C-alpha cells in the first residue's frame, strides 16, 4: 500500500464521521507527518456557521496532539464530483507545518483527482521559515 493509499483510506474512514447536518457535505483529511504517522480529521459544522471546523484543521490538530510537527503530505477527500481544494484558511494552516513543495492530494470518492504542491495553492506564502 502506498502512502497515498494509506492517506486515502484514513480520510475515507474519518469522512464517514463528519458532522455536516447543515451543508450535507462530508469532508475527510489525512496528514502524513515527518515520522510516517497518519493523522485524520473531518469537518464539524456548527449551527453558528462560522464556528465549524474544517477537516484539514482537525487532521493538523490531531498531528500536533500526537507530537508531529511537520506535514510530509496531506490528502483532502470531498463528496461528489467537484474538485475540492483546501480553503484559504486551511492553506495557511497547512503552511504553518509544511514547506511550499509539500504535496497536497485532492480526492473524491473514486480516488485522487489531482496533486498540487502547497506553493501552487498558496503562492509566495508566509510561514515559520520566513521568520528566521
Automatic annotation (TrEMBL):
The record's active-site residues are 56 (proton donor)
CMP/dCMP-type deaminase domain residues are 2-129
- Cofactor names: Zn(2+)
Q: What class of enzyme is it?
A: hydrolase
> What InterPro entries does the annotation carry?
APOBEC/CMP_deaminase_Zn-bd, CMP_dCMP_dom, Cyt/Deoxycyt_deaminase, Cyt_deam_tetra, Cytidine_deaminase-like
Looking up CDD domains in the UniProt record yields: cytidine_deaminase
The GO terms this record gives for MF are: cytidine deaminase activity; identical protein binding; zinc ion binding
| UniProt cross-references to SUPFAM superfamilies, sorted A to Z | Cytidine deaminase-like
Q: Where does Zn(2+) bind?
A: 54, 87, 90
**Protein family per UniProt:** Belongs to the cytidine and deoxycytidylate deaminase family.
Which function does this protein serve? This enzyme scavenges exogenous and endogenous cytidine and 2'-deoxycytidine for UMP synthesis.
The protein's name is Cytidine deaminase
What is the originating organism of this protein?
Methylobacterium nonmethylotrophicum
